[in-house]
Prior knowledge:
This protein has 206 residues and is an alpha+beta fold. It has one domain: q2cbj1_9rhob like domain (Jelly Rolls). 22% of the residues lie in helices and 28% in strands. It has three helices and eleven strands; from the N terminus they run αβαββαββββββββ. α2 crosses α3. The longest helix is centred in the middle third of the chain and has 21 residues. It is globular.
Amino acid sequence: MNAHFISEIYLDDIESRGYTIIHNAITKSLIASLMLDCYRINPEFSIAGIGRKNDLQVNKNIRKDKTYWFDGSSQAQLDYLALMAEMRVVLNRNFFLGLFDYECHYAKYLTGDFYKKHYDAFKGRSNRVFTTVLYLNTPQAGGELVIYKPKTKQVEVCIKPQAGTLVMFESERFMHEVLPAGDERYSIAGWFRMNASISGVIDPPR
């Protein structure tokens, strides 16, 4: 397994428009393993919050999905993290960004669940550089990821969830939302991060 899908065309997309959409990004066997992992930990999914660390709050008017942060407790998680580590190397090699790690969680949307417009990072206040979304299943309806044009309310792209599709975009640049799910929707949300701390102290992951 390697980051072969980060081809020149996808890197060009990231450089020219700040996002890319990669269909069939990972193998069907890994998708199946990740879904089985979701079923294994389903009772441990928790209601997602807004903010980080001490500022974390639950607001069901903004988001209703449930999450489970990767903890390396399954081979599927380890395989996916290894793939993202290879991608991080490719991104650093091509864009000289100094990305130092990757954090991610499973996201589960039940029927009617949503996540309203938001940014994953705010300029000067976050170390998240690129956001990734990998779809693990293909819902029959709803759950689209809508990415908005920078500094406008106009839609840049609306992406239907499809198992194996990976979306990556600049975290500070794009406001986005997840429309209400028509049925269960599973994905992995992740972030490539820079170390924005000082004196060699590594930032906390979340």
